[in-house]
Every structure is written in structure tokens, then in C-alpha cells.
Amino acid sequence: MDAIEKNLLKEVAELDSLxxxxxxxxxxxxxxxxxxxxxxxxxxxxxxxxxxIYIKPGTKNExxxxxxxxxxxxxxxxVYNDFHIGEGADVTIIAGCGIHNCGGDSQHDGIxxxxxxxxxxxxxxxxxxxxxxxxxxxVMNPTTIVHLEEGAQMEMETTQIAGIDDxxxxxxxxxxxxxSLVVREKIMxxxxxxxxxxxxxxxxxxxxxxxxxxxxxAKDHSRQEFISRINGNxxxxxxxxxxxxxxxxxxxxxxxxxxANSVDASLIHEAAIGKIAGEQxxxxxxxxxxxxxxxxxxVNGFLK
Amino acid sequence: MDAIEKNLLKEVAELDSLxxxxxxxxxxxxxxxxxxxxxxxxxxxxxxxxxxIYIKPGTKNExxxxxxxxxxxxxxxxVYNDFHIGEGADVTIIAGCGIHNCGGDSQHDGIxxxxxxxxxxxxxxxxxxxxxxxxxxxVMNPTTIVHLEEGAQMEMETTQIAGIDDxxxxxxxxxxxxxSLVVREKIMxxxxxxxxxxxxxxxxxxxxxxxxxxxxxAKDHSRQEFISRINGNxxxxxxxxxxxxxxxxxxxxxxxxxxANSVDASLIHEAAIGKIAGEQxxxxxxxxxxxxxxxxxxVNGFLK
Lengths: 304, 304
Prior knowledge:
The structure is a homodimer.
Chain A: H1 3-13, E1 22-27, E2 30-35, E3 40-44, E4 50-55, E5 60-70, E6 76-85, E7 90-101, E8 106-116, E9 121-132, E10 138-140, E11 143-148, E12 153-162, E13 166-175, E14 180-189, E15 194-203, E16 208-218, E17 223-232, E18 236-246, E19 251-260, E20 265-274, H2 278-286, H3 291-303
Parallel strand pairs in A: 1-5, 4-6, 5-7, 6-8, 7-9, 8-10, 8-11, 9-12, 10-13, 11-13, 12-14, 13-15, 14-16, 15-17, 16-18, 17-19, 18-20
Antiparallel strand pairs in A: 1-2, 3-4
Family (chains A, B): Belongs to the iron-sulfur cluster assembly SufBD family.
Pfam families (chains A, B): SUFBD_core
Domain SUF system FeS cluster assembly SufBD core (chains A, B): 84-302
């Protein structure tokens, strides 16, 4: 692994060296390293690119790192990863993809399907990062499909702060009784970048809940679209929230949809799009910051 | 005018007798009465069904009533009404449609286009009401198109509480600098009724603002869809709010969309769908109301 690849790994997985616990590192479309534990098995798919990750019932306090790094220009990588989380397990999975390319467009499409068995708990962290020359595009289209059985709980944190020119991020989930899904998304787009996020959640089981929180900053000429569809099909609670800071000549569209198919569904949505409040800027500028520094401070705080 | 027609007139226009000021009464697709004033002229269109209403610049504190009543079964009425409100005028227009039909479906489609000149102010009230036998359908598809010139202000209040089986309510507006549009919509659906409301507002002028407030109650097997699209194309403020009470086996869908095409656009949306809070019901029931009476009280308060 060279210096560029090591840096990508640090950006997407906060790793300086090989991770503790189970891991599977994919570099330029190939397996680059794998470690399994007594409770976590990782198996290469035979019918298509990707892996199956099996986590035994009752596994606690273990983690799986599955970073993908692409340092070749012109590479188009498609991968199917399936996660089978056993009953009562409580684990963390850290995914992420970093692209460094010069002299050609590169693309990574990751299709991740999660099967959480009864009362399983999962924290899933996903970070997307790109770097390289200005003429090469970096494209990432993550698809996340979540199946939550009774009482299963999943928290998903996704971050895309820099370097991705084009992304369509699709997340869908179906929730059985008592299941809970929390999604926290952070996106920043700059230059001519384009980002679309599309959430669909079906609350099918009594007492299930979904909470989708999106925070985004759109700078320069970038364009963002936030779509969410929350369907309450039973006694359930759904909430979605989309806050966007718009700067320069950017454009932001928020299109959340709530559907109550049951009298016992309680659904709430909030969205706000606006620029940084002038008074906030002035306050920081009276403390000695330039306008640009003040904006950066506010944006960093907003996306923290 | 018979007793049925008089009752319809009362329901949609709160009129016991002929109104004061200008009016145009349309009954069963025909002109039934018209009155103009020195400042307000009403002219029958020659190219299609409908009227042009001309309000002179500077006209203040005058009103126009334009009720439509249909007491024939099987009638399908389509009308184009255009409203030309002169510069600096400040008037009230009360529209509304009532259908009473037995033994056949009746339908009224009213296409209303408003041209508000500079600094004109308009309060526009529209009420839809239906009654008749259970086997005859009552359909109303109101389309409202609003053009607001610089500094023009329009407040629109629409109410559809009972008796309309099927409705697609389309409202669109474009706003020049400093113009303001406020829409308050109240809808209640029962039985197998279906109601769709669709708002599109383009804020094109600096300092324009739009505020769309929808309150609805869906009972029995009825179905409601709320769609709004607010486009901020300049320094402007947009707000939309959709609160729905869902009861019985009803279904409610809210799909608001915000698009900020300018860094100076400030857009906010809120939506909440849920049933009547149990504690509210219990409180009223401890005061001696039956559950049904308590529900009615709450629904009436919500739609007031």
C-alpha cells in the first residue's frame, strides 16, 4: 500500500494501520486484506463481486472495517456486500470509499444489504471521500437496503464532505415490530458537484420508528437534492429533518414525503433551506475572523 | 331560486339574500343574476364560458360575490373566470361552489386566473360544498392561477368541509418583487372521498414571500394528498405547513418540495400527520362529552 492509498484509508476509515477486529480491504477492485474473528466471518461471493459478512448471534462489542480504496484512474468498481447480523448481536461496521484519480474518471457503486435479526443492534458508519485532478470525475453511488426484524435497531451515519463530483445515494428500509432506524447524513458539495439522496422507509410493524436527519452545505455552483419518503403502515413514529445551508450560486431541493396509511401512524417532517445568518457572521468577524474564516467555522459547526 | 338553491348559496357564500356590491351568480351553468358598480365591471366572455371581472385602480373596501350553484344531477360545468385587479385596489372576492344532486353525478371545474397590478391587495375566499344522495358523485376541480405584480398582496382562504367526493385543487402563483401570497386551506374528507391539493409558487422578485398553511382532517376511508412546490429564485421567504388529523381508516400523504435557486432564498417547511391525542379526548370526556362529541369538538377547533 503506497502513501496515496494509506491517506485514502485514513480519510474514509480513520485508520493509520490495520484495524483491530474483523476487516476486509478492497483496493482497486481487488481483495487487499482480510481478517475474520471467532464471531465474524467474511466470505467472498462467487456469483458476483462482493462479500457476505456473517455476524454470529449474541456477538457484542466487535467491529468490522470494510474500506474500499481506488487509486487508479478510469476504474469502475461495482460491489455487492451483504451483512447478516445475528439475533441479539451488538456491533459496529465501518465502511467507506476513497478515490484518488488523475487522468480519468473513476466510479464506485456499493450495494449494501443489511439483514438484522431479532433484537440485533448495529451502528453503521460510511464515509465517502475523493481527491485528484480537476479534470477527472469521481463518482459514487451507494445503495443501502436495510431489513430490520423485530426489535432490531440500526444507526447509520453517512458523511460525504469533499471530492465527489456525482453521487446518487439510495437508502431503503423496512421495519418490523419495535424496530428502529436512525439515519444521520452529512453532505457538503462544492464546485460543480451534484448530490442526490433518496430515502424510502416502510414502517410495517407496530411500535417501529424511523428518524432521518440530513444536514447539508451546498457551495459554489453545486446542486443537491434531498428526497425522503416515509410510509407509516401501522402504529409507528416517523420523523425526518432536512437542514441545508446554501452558499454562492448553489441550488438545493428538498422533497420529503410522508404517507400515513394507518390512523396510528404519527409522522413529522421539517425542512429549512437558507444562507448563513448575517448576524452570526458579524459576531465571529468582531472576534477577529475574516468573513471566509467565519463562514468556515459556522459550516464546520453545522456539519459536526 | 328554490329552497335547495338558496341553501347552497348560504353554504358557499353565507348569503341569505342578494349580496351588497358587485356579484355574478351562476346557476346550473347559466347566468342567474349580476350586479356591477362604478368601480367593478363584470363582462361575459365571448370565446368560452366564464366572466372577466375588472376592478378599477384604487378601488377600496368593495367586494365581489361570484357563487356557482348546481342543483341539477348529471350537469358538468366548466367555467373560466379572470380577475383583473387594478393598481392599488384593496378588495374582497368571495367565490364558492355548491352542488346538490340526486340521481346522477355533477361536476364543476372552475379555472380562476388573477392578475393583481402593482400594490393591489386582494382577499379571496372560496368555499366548496356538496349535498345529495349517496349514489351520485359530486366532483369539483378548482384551478387557481395567481400573477402578482410588484408589491401586490393576496390572501386566499379555501374551505372544503363536506360533500365533495372527488377534488383536484391546483393553485399556482408567480410573485414579482415585494409581492406576498398567503394561502389558508381547510379540508375535511369523509366516506370514500378523495382530495388532492397541489400548490406551485415561484418567487421571482426580490423580497417576495409565500406562506401556505394547510389543515386537514381525513375520516373513514377517505384519502388526501397534499403537494406543494415552493421555488425561491431570489431573495425571498417561503414557508409551507401541512397539519393533518387522520381518523378511522383514512390515508394522508404530504409531499412538500422546497427549491432554493438563490443563496438569498429562505425556505421552511413543516408537516405533521397524526391522530387526535388520547389525552385531549379524555380531558373532554371527563367534562361529560361522549368520545364522538369530544372528537367533533377537537376537529371543529382544528379547522376553525
